[in-house]
């Protein structure tokens, strides 16, 4: 088909083939069809980070937009289902809570459901908050099924995401993208050429001398930010003073009998440990602050806390939580780790890749690279990064643990005003206020506030104008949720019936 805009983008070069590179390639191949060439350059020698294994529900929209069949995808990636995250020992020792995907029942008579819970709780008559969400009713029983399409059913009030092998997901998307015309080039980029007047990237050159010119470059080169930082020196904001973990050790182990439809995050002395069940193995990792523990001690702690035999040596990773000053600079868009790093506590990095791609498509440029477009992309991206950052800070800030240096530091640290604002509003009347680009909605914030002991001083004054007996109403809800959870198939049974990997 003929191009109508003479300034249209004709060629895109994606630098890097990790999760970010292949998600971008697949989405562009799907959206641009035949109008523009898409070339992806990656180096097997450099390799990928490849440890992103837990996701959040919007990934289902990403896959659906590409027309990917869920069962085929779960089979191809040794995937499993995720209904939320269980947090162990975060607020205090020997305590746990669940951050669910979905809601706590439904708001009732214009008052959020949790206000009734707070009311009952104050009278000593409330069931545990976790028992009021469908995701935990299923997860705590090791069950999984698709949410009901009937909005009257309690079984419609949860959402889900996936755990998967990130390397297999990239391979899956590579097949998809190549089938739609994306050209993959194997090789190491050694140099780049910029236009003298504008500083725009004109081309990249591989070690073997081959050159690749493009109108638009997507930097998916990982932490190194080959173009966004190496060439354009965009700068980086370091958030380590709020999110102090800066290292991780990742290790797979044999799959245990407990095949949970959720991620587990256990707070440790100098960070936290993840546990992510896949079909063929369980992924584990210790995310820690190098100021408070060294690598050898962290590895020992991690290996002592696996629920199956380790299948490899722990893989060390270093990072600085924060973001690039700009995600889009000149004709380079940074997607994935090249744009910034959000520590993985709420499994948001792959989502940020998806969000970067969605914004790029919504604000797709032509060769004028109008600052109106790039500024808006950066404004949205920054807001998105900062709102997620705030939610993760909440987990650290609200700890009441004082048993180790890390937790004492976190409890005492200053946090951004945007977090204090949320903590204060919840503490006063239990209100969950939202800002633009809040990926995590009121139920997520509720889970962490209550789970970590930020209990409100009073309920919403509007509640006094309702005649509801909160405790009776909540008990009925908890019973209905428990029954619905009981009636679901087991997580393992669901996978066996629908999407077991070969
Ligand atoms: P990379 O995987 O580093 O890929 C970079 C690519 O660039 C590679 O293909 C490499 O070959 C190529 N490249 C680099 N330099 C050159 C060059 N000179 N020439 C040619 N090619 C080059 N995310 C989640 O959503 N959920 C999680 O649970 C999660 N857990 C994580 C845990 C840890 C400890 C860490 C560190 C990250 C985690 N993430 C998680 C993040 C997730 O791993 C990344 O977002 C994801 O892997 C994307 O990485 P990437 O593609 O940006 O970079």
Could you walk me through the main structural features you see in this protein, from its secondary elements to its overall organization?
The protein is an alpha+beta fold and 502 residues long. The protein folds into three domains: 11-49 and 165-238 and 322-369, 3-Layer(bba) Sandwich (FAD/NAD(P)-binding domain), CATH 3.50.50; 65-71 and 79-100 and 247-318, 2-Layer Sandwich (D-Amino Acid Oxidase, Chain A, domain 2), CATH 3.30.9.10; 101-162 and 388-492, no CATH class. It is 34% helix and 19% strand. The chain has 15 helices and 21 strands. Strands 5-4-14-15-16-13-17 form a seven-stranded mixed β-sheet. A six-stranded mixed β-sheet has the order 7-2-1-11-20-19. A three-stranded antiparallel β-sheet has the order 8-9-10, with no helix packed on it. The protein is globular and about 75 Å long. The mean pLDDT is 96. Flavin-adenine dinucleotide (FAD) binds at residues 16-21, 41-43, 46-55, 166, 188-189, 220-222, 224, 226, 248, 250, 285, 317, 319, 336-337, 344, 347, 349-350.
């Amino acid at each position: 088909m003929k191009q109508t805009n003479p300034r249209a983008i004709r060629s895109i070069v994606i630098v890097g083939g990790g999760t970010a590179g292949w998600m971008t390639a697949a989405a562009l191949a799907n959206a641009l069809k035949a109008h523009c060439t898409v070339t992806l350059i990656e180096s097997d020698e450099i390799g990928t980070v490849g440890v992103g294994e837990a996701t959040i529900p919007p990934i289902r929209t990403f896959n659906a937009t590409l027309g990917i069949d869920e069962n085929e995808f779960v089979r191809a990636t040794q995937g499993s289902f995720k209904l939320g995250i269980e947090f162990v020992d975060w607020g205090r020792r020997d305590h746990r809570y669940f951050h669910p995907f979905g809601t706590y029942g439904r708001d009732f008579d214009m008052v959020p459901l949790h206000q009734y819970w707070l009311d009952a709780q104050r009278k000593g008559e409330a069931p545990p908050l976790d028992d009021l969400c469908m995701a935990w009713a299923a997860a705590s029983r090791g069950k999984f099924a698709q949410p009901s399409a009937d909005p009257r059913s309690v079984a419609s009030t949860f959402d889900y995401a996936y755990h998967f092998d990130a390397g297999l997901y990239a391979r899956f998307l590579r097949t998809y993208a190549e089938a739609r015309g994306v050209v993959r080039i194997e090789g190491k980029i050694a140099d780049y050429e910029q236009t003298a007047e504008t500083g725009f990237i004109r081309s990249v050159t591989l070690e073997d001398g081959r050159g690749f010119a493009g109108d638009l470059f997507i930097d998916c080169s990982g932490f190194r930010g080959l173009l966004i930082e190496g060439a354009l020196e965009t700068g980086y904001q370091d958030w380590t003073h709020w999110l102090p973990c800066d290292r991780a050790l990742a290790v797979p182990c044999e799959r245990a009998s407990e095949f949970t439809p959720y991620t587990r995050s256990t707070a440790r002395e100098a960070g936290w440990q993840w546990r992510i069940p896949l079909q063929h193995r369980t992924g584990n990792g210790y995310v820690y602050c190098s100021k408070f523990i060294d690598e050898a001690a962290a590895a020992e702690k991690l290996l002592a806390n696996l629920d199956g035999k380790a299948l490899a040596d722990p893989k060390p990773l270093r990072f600085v939580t924060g973001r690039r000053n700009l995600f889009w600079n000149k004709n380079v868009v940074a997607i994935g780790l090249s744009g910034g790093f959000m520590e993985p506590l709420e499994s948001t990095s792959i989502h940020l890749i998806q969000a970067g791609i969605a914004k790029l498509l919504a604000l797709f440029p032509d060769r004028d690279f109008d600052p109106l477009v790039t500024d808006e992309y950066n404004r949205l991206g920054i807001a998105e990064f900062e709102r997620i950052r705030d939610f993760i800070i909440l987990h650290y800030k609200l700890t009441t643990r004082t048993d180790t240096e890390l937790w004492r530091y976190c409890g005492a640290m200053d946090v951004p005003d945007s977090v204090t604002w949320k903590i204060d509003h919840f503490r006063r009347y239990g209100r969950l206020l939202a800002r633009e680009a809040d990926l995590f909605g009121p139920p997520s914030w509720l889970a962490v506030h209550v789970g970590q002991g930020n209990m409100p001083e009073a309920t919403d004054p509007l509640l006094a104008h309702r005649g509801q007996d909160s405790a009776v109403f909540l008990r009925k809800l908890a019973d209905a949720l428990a029954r619905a959870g009981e009636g679901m198939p087991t997580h393992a049974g669901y996978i066996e019936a629908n999407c077991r990997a070969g």
